Amino acid sequence: MTVPVSVAARGRVPLAAGVCLCSFVAFWAAQRAAEVSLVDLMVYRAEGRAVRDGGDLYALRATEARLPMTYPPFAGLLFTPLTLPDTATLRPLATAGNLALLVAFAHLSLRLADRRGHARVEGALWVSAIAVWSEPVWTTLRYGQVNLLLAVLVLWDLTRRPGHRWAGVGTGVAAAIKLTPALFAVFLLLVGAVQAVRRGARRGTWRELWQPAVRHACVAAAGFLGATLLAAVVLPDDSRRFWTRVLFEADRAGHAEQTANQSLRGVLARLLHTGDPGSWWAAGAALVCAAGLGVAVAAAVCGERAWGAAACAATMLLVSPVSWSHHWVWCVPMALLWWARAERLGGRVRRAGAAGFALLFCSYALWWVPHRPGRPELDQHVGQMALSALYPLAACAFLVLTAAVVVPLRPWRRSRTV
After folding, report:
1. How far apart are CA 147 and CA 178, in angstroms?
2. Measuring CA to CA, which residue among 83, 84, 102 is closest to residue 330?
3. Collapsing DSSP states into helix, strand and coil, what is residue 408?
4. DSSP secondary structure letter of residue 402
5. Would you tell me how many other CB atoms lie within 10 Å of the CB of residue 92?
6. Cα–Cα distance measured from residue 176 to residue 98, given in angstroms and rounded to the nearest whole number
């Protein structure tokens, strides 16, 4: 039966490719009709220009919105090629590049979930055709953001064979561009440590400590340090400014209570009607981080590494000081895992839950609340607060699902290497 199924799947790939292409063309036309600015891309270009000209990266204010540099200095180095083409050429190139990254991201998400062969190619095209219309992906392309690049770097690592010598480099580079992916290295280190303790206790030796997951985390740390040191050599003054001052300026990217901020800090800022939730956020973030990582590690150790990785992504987005709505492109692998679980177990309620989770990210419902200048988010009523907390609520639901369904189902399963 394998050959006919493979041939049938191969025959469906052109159809999926045609639908995906039509979806991308319609998306491109819609973005042009909306006259999207790709404002973040223009900020990246200005940052690359500042690096080339020897300017102060963190004194820079780019575009009419006067947006600052918020990433580590290594990102500024990577943005220097953006200064080579003119802006009229750069805009379509960046959009085309992000669409290609979306297909790669869908492919890696399916690979993480252990889909194989031509069905994965076909599935990646179908998923891309739909995901491009989700709010996080739409907004990523609208602004010309780097979210898909970072997600691809991390998933490229997580889907490599266990023990691959270069597994971890992508995560390290992603963390050097933007700090939040570093949580994946912590996740892998904890998974490896738990596996080592379990195996070492059985065999009476601590030589088991050097697990592939631990090695993966160490390579990620080495990749991060290497990229950061390179930036420190090339941009010593900017590196000093970032690591001693800019890193601690939580409000540099914008007001915490903004609707677009779909992190725990943003939810608390809107709930407490304050621009600085302070110790409430610190305590909440610590609790959520511990609980989320606990669920992620438990899932991975029980053999559900895809669920563990997705739970780590949900935790990362929740505890980050700022998780703009376009950072939530990780909804794609979360939705795929939820739907696959519902299909495998069956039942209308499970399918409805999976479909509702996916539709939430395609609804744009968080923008149904007042979000214009003047900081109206500080005066939201309960219904508006609920709408503007949709992504964090979805992430919490995903973590609960992982804890309540995935982990208890297989406590006896032999752990697989992450």
Report:
1. 10
2. 102
3. helix
4. I
5. 13
6. 20
How far is C-alpha 153 from the chain's CA centre? 10
406 pLDDT higher than 80:
no
What is the spatial distance between Cα 18 and Cα 176, in angstroms, rounded to a whole number?
37
Overall average pLDDT of the 3-22 stretch? 73
For residue 271, the one-letter residue type is L
**What pLDDT, on a 0 to 100 scale, did the predictor assign at position 412?**
42
CA distance 270 to 268: 5
Contact 127, 329 (CB under 8 A): no
Mean pLDDT lowest for which of 157-166, 193-202, 315-324?
193-202
Strand partners, 89: none
Report the chain's mean pLDDT, rounded to a whole number: 88
Residues found in the chain:
418
Tell me the three state secondary structure of residue 228.
helix
Residue pair 327/317 in contact (Cβ under 8 Å)? The answer is yes
3-state class (DSSP) for residue 198: helix
pLDDT tens per residue across span 176-190: 999 999 999 999 999
- Tokens 């949709």 belong to residue: 390
What does the pLDDT look like over 57-67, one tens digit per residue?
999 998 888 88
pLDDT (0 to 100) of residue 119:
59
Pure H helices in 113-159:
117-131, 135-143, 147-158
β-sheet bridge partners, residue 261: 324
Residue 115 has pLDDT above 60, yes or no: no
Q: What is the mean pLDDT of residues 190-197?
A: 85
Where helices occur in 303-347 by DSSP H, the ranges are 305-319, 331-345
Report in angstroms the alpha-carbon separations of 104 from 13, 100, 132, 335, 399.
15, 6, 13, 16, 25
Distance of CA 6 to the CA centre of its chain: 32
Residue 131's alpha-carbon distances to 10, 22, 154, 257, 397, in angstroms, are 22, 13, 19, 27, 20
Question: What six digits make up the tokens of 353?
Answer: 């839950």
Q: What is the pLDDT of residue 240?
A: 95
